[in-house]
Structures are given as C-alpha cells and as structure tokens.
Design a protein that fits this description.
The protein is mostly helical and 246 residues long. The chain has a single domain, classed as Four Helix Bundle (Hemerythrin (Met), subunit A) (Up-down Bundle). 58% of the residues lie in helices and 0% in strands. The protein contains ten helices and no strands.
C-alpha cells in the first residue's frame, strides 16, 4: 500500500478487509505513550459508532486523538500517515452507511451469546471505545437532550447508552449476576444488537431535530417608532416630520 495508486484508492473506496489488516497491524505496532495505549481495532469501531451517532459534526482531530491515544502519532512515513488517516475516515464512513442503511450496527465479532466466548472480549473492547466516544460528546448531548422535541427520548437514550457502555466495566455486573435476583447477563448479551440498532435509529432522529433547530434563523424583533419620537435616520427631527411618510 505504498504506491500512489493505492493512496488514491484508500481515499475513494469503502473500508474493507485489506484496510482492516493494515490498520490492525499499525495499531499493534504503536508503543504505549504518555496518554495511554492506542485502541484496538474493535474499540475504534465502538468509537466510530459514537461519533457517527453524534448530533453534530465532530472534528477529526478529536476522535483521532482518542483512537491513537496521542495528538502526535508516530508514523514510519508520510505515506503511512496518509494511509492510516484515509482508513480511519473510510471506517467512519462505513459506520455511517451501515447506520443509515438499516443494517446490523453491532459488529459480528462482538455479538456474544455468553461471557465465556471470544465475542464477549471483543464486545468489551467495542464498549470501551463507545464509552470514550460518548464521554467526548457528553457536553453536546447534555445540551441536545434539553430540546423540547428531544426530551421525550431522553430516558430511552440514557438506557441504551448505559447498556452499550456497561460491558467495558463488566466485573461488577458479573458479580451482581451471581446473586439470586441478579441480572440475566446472557439475556442482556442477546439483546445487544437490538439495543445498538435502537440507539442508531434514535440518534438519527435526534440529529435531524437538532440540525433543524440550529439552522433556524434568529427571530427579528421590530421596534415600533412613535410619531413624536426622534427619527431613526439621525436627522434630529421628529419621525412624523421626517421619514414616516417616505
């Protein structure tokens, strides 16, 4: 993936298995920095789900800093930097198209039936990435959820967010599940694809509401001018003797 034709194709094609391999290899090669370890590929997919569902556009440098755990990632060459950035953008684009197309939004490798499967560990990674993305956008969501047309969805939104986040810190949940009246973890796991899909649909509706709200022109206030008030044109005359009849 080092020639110019490959560079062009990365910018224009959909995220695929080859790009997934390139991104995975790069992430595995990254050293632990002061900001922490870069995300796994599965965690980045969770992050992208949060970003794609945002009610506002998120600057790329913000989510890239989360994904790569640093504002200044290290690359072997300019070509590699371009490749990785294109791949990340392609992954985000694929996530958005998956959501808008009504497809399953929870990655197949994360659909666990029980806590002993490899899919469960992947789900934990995905939830960790989603959680970090949600935290990044929390100030935005706090404001958006106050909108009168969005408020009726706040409870459902919060419930979905908690269920999607809970697996990144599953130890306490698993301990509760051991108790007699504890939660049925396997049932919760089976519901995850539906929960993720519900969140995607809800966020799509909320984004539409919010975008219309911020695009609405400001109300223009008209102040009535009395006939005996000074004319606003600055002539110093009373309005009735100046511009009232013009």
């Amino acid at each position: 993936m080092s020639d110019s034709s490959t560079k062009a194709s990365l910018a224009n094609c959909a995220f695929d298995q080859q790009q997934e391999k390139v991104l995975s290899a790069y992430l595995a090669s990254c050293p632990v920095g002061k900001s922490g370890q870069v995300m796994t590929l599965t965690a980045i997919k969770g992050l992208m789900f949060a970003i794609a569902n945002s009610p506002v556009n998120v600057p790329p440098d913000r989510w890239m800093t989360l994904a790569l755990a640093t504002k200044t990632p290290t690359f072997e060459s300019v070509q590699q930097e371009n490749d990785i950035r294109h791949i990340l953008f392609n992954l985000l684009d694929k996530t958005r198209k998956t959501i808008s197309g009504g497809f399953e939004v929870l990655p197949e490798e994360c659909r666990a039936e029980d806590v002993y499967s490899s899919e469960f560990s992947r789900l934990q990674e995905w939830a960790m990435g989603y959680g970090q993305g949600s935290e990044l956008l929390m100030d935005v969501w706090t404001q958006v959820l106050k909108h009168p047309r969005v408020q009726p969805m706040e409870e459902s939104w919060s419930s979905c967010m908690l269920l999607l986040n809970v697996w990144s810190r599953a130890d306490s949940l698993l301990e509760k599940a051991k108790k007699k009246d504890g939660p049925d973890v396997n049932k919760m796991l089976q519901a995850m694809p539906a929960v993720a899909r519900e969140m995607a649909v809800m966020c799509h509706d909320i984004r539409g509401i919010w975008q219309k709200a911020i695009e609405k022109p400001a109300t223009v206030r008209v102040t009535k001018i009395g006939r005996n008030d000074l004319c606003p044109c600055g002539s110093g005359k009373k309005h009735k003797k100046c511009c009232e009849n013009k």
